[in-house]
Amino acid sequence: MPKWLQDAVFYEIYPQSFNDTNGDGIGDLDGIVEKLDYIKSLGCNALWINPCYDSPFKDAGYDVRDYKKVAPRYGTNADLYRLFGEAHKRGIHVLLDLIPGHTSEEHAWFKASQKQERNEYSDRYVWADHTFRIENYPYVAGESERDGIYMLNFYKCQPALNYGFFNPTEPWQMSYKDPACQKTKEALKDVMRFWLDRGCDGFRVDMANYLVKGEDENRTGTCAIWKDVRKMLEKDYPDAALVSEWANPPQSIGAGFHMDFLLNNPGTGYSTLMRDYSNAKSNANTSGVNNKKVDVTSDRSFFKKDGNGDIMRFLNDYLPMYKESKEKGGYVSIVTCNHDTPRARRTLDYDELKLAYAFIFTMPGVPFLYYGDEIGMRYLDIPTKEGGYGRTGSRTPMQWNRNKNLGFSDAHEEDIYLPVDSSSDAPTVEAQEKDPNSLLNTVRNIINLRHEYTDLNADGDFEVIYAKESELPFIYKRGELYIAINPSAKTVTANVKTGSKIIYSIGNGTLNNEGITLEPQSFVVIK
Q: Is 461-526 CATH 3.20.20.110?
């Protein structure tokens, strides 16, 4: 386990929307370098950069054309190497996004794989030769010189790389232990080595649990791949970090990952914290897959002041996951948002966001802050771009100031990657810098508190002190620190003995011989 993860706070950057330095309307790597001091000022000491590899951008870069080349719209390989170096000078680690399950249909591997004559890439992808369909899997037929059809992972542009099948049932299906499938794994490791050798500090792995097809419930074949990758890291890159998009921390950590995300999938405990509307039947498709207006009448998010939320809906899901992950030596990562999820500001106001983020940054594990969440950027209902569909509204340009395009770019409005928030009250970094009580400065303060007290480290102890179904407050302990939250619009009291001194607060809380009282929408840290 890389020691630097103990105190890590990540900042996720969607590169095309962060900061444009050359005036073409698209964010670039130099733009990230230009804002590294700002990122450091937040207290963030690690970055996750969404895909910046060469791509046709039919899925916003998750369709890779060349894993070892930076997309020209972002800059050059040299620009990325410089970013690594400048980040390291500031004590910031950098993770790249790794897409292991598929490539673009324009990748050189796939072009070679399409040829009728056998070559070293013929088995790099999943092909069903001499057939017209693949049962139970998406596929494309009739577009290749080769006499066969190929399997897809998601979009038509994303042919599935061949890591094999757990239990082959057709002649064209290879076992995940087949030498050809092992070569695909080695090609993946080669890509990882390429970037690690040039200054990258690790990877966030996209859809990490979907490599081997027809898996058992333990994902035995896919886990075997990642265990082998972890061996490589332990031997050659012991300080490199690996975080999975798996949404099953005990399973992914057992497979070799250092940490795994909680995702906003309907029915999960995480979804009840800030986006409970996604669990309502009336909002069946609002978790990030289309632009449907949200019905908030049934929103019982814990951090909504009038939501009458229940922290047990989160804890009943989280606690077993946390315990097992800790026993296996890994971390559960809680995010403010990500590029696939509606921003929390969609339904929460600034005061509600302050409490939600204070919770996230005082929980165990490694937290992730999505760019713009620190100022409360909105989710915008806008047309799809580069395969984003409903996710597009969470990918709009960063809002730096009140200058042209909110400081994101000097390009003409029609050339901007996505429209900026045109609201008169659109939040900006510049405006919130001046307000000591702004969301931005609250985020800074709570992250700095996390760095100040080792009890708040990723591996620090965690214990629930007071949590009851449909009752408040929620009180938990991190080492010697007690943390109490009341997100509601009413004053609440708990007859619980805590520490003797409040060392940080949002809102107001009081301690007495009987316990603790929290005024509406309050958060306190007690020592």
A: no
